[in-house]
Amino acid sequence: MEKKETKQHVVAEAEQENGPLIEDETERSKVSIMRALCDRQDPSTKEVDDLMIRRFLRARDMEIEKASTLFLNYLAWKKSFLPKGHIPESEIANDLSHKKVCMQGHDKMGRPIVVGFGSRHKPSKGNPDEYKRFVVYTLEKICARMPRGVEKFIVIGDLQGWGFSNSDIRGNLAALSTLHDCYPERLGKLYIVHAPYIFMTAWKIVYPFIDTNTKKKIVFVENKKLTETLLEDMDETQLPDIYGGKMPLTLIQDS
Question: In the prediction, which pLDDT does 21 show?
């Protein structure tokens, strides 16, 4: 009984220091090696948990050297882009005013559910730098909402009413770059709903820049199968009410 309690105590201490323990021995070993290598170059490595390091490893097929480069670049980016540790809402007031992103509820795996409205994105009434800050603000809010041990989130990209005035190829590519390089392995699934035919023109331009793993997570949903498809991942109580569920939408800034 004492041995069992001692083991539990050790596990609890380890989890408190570096987050939930990684069960896979190979992954755990590579995380340990990568942490040691990165800590030599950037002591702020100590501030992140093992799950974050594992995400960067997985994003580079568990290759320590490539993952370490990506991770160290992320740490440098974070110090530059998030000197305060967060994006003040006063710096993204214009994008927030468009009410284009909502976050409420969790799917059956505990992943936060995010809804983005493409028709509310108005690049002509904003500027690229603010949009970059808005993307990071959104990702940071999503990650902060994740329960302990949950690493991913689900997005419903609603394109009803989308037109060429909402098209923002440069902004979307920048957002993809931020997701891939700074928040790897965070996207669980992207449902694209109500996609108009004209959207495919812009999609064909963006698609080649999406990495293979992310492409596998993208699902275009037919209107007639919308509710039943979303219910595969979400309980009715957590599904947004505009898609046949019972969860009211909540703006990202109010979540």
Answer: 81
Position 12 scores a pLDDT of: 47
pLDDT at 18: 60
pLDDT digits 0-9 by tens, 157-184: 999 999 999 999 999 999 999 999 999 9
- pLDDT for residue 79: 96
Residue 160 — left, alpha, or beta (φ > 0 → left; ψ -120 to 50 → alpha)? beta
User: Are the CB atoms for 238 and 113 separated by under 8 Å?
Assistant: yes
Three-class secondary structure assignment of the chain:
CHHHHHHHHHHHHHHHHHCCCCCCHHHHHHHHHHHHHHHHHCHHHHHCCHHHHHHHHHHCCCCHHHHHHHHHHHHHHHHHHCCCCCCCHHHCHHHHHCCCEEEEEECCCCCEEEEEEHHHCCHHHCCHHHHHHHHHHHHHHHHHHCCCCCCCEEEEEECCCCCHHHCCHHHHHHHHHHHHHHCCCCEEEEEEECCCCCHHHHHHHHHHHCCHHHHCCEEEECHHHHHHHHCCCCCCCCCEHHHCCCECCCEHHHC
The residue ranges of the chain whose pLDDT is under 50 are: 1-12, 14
Q: How does 117-128 read in b/e, with b if 16+ C-beta sit within 10 Å? A: bbbbbebeebee
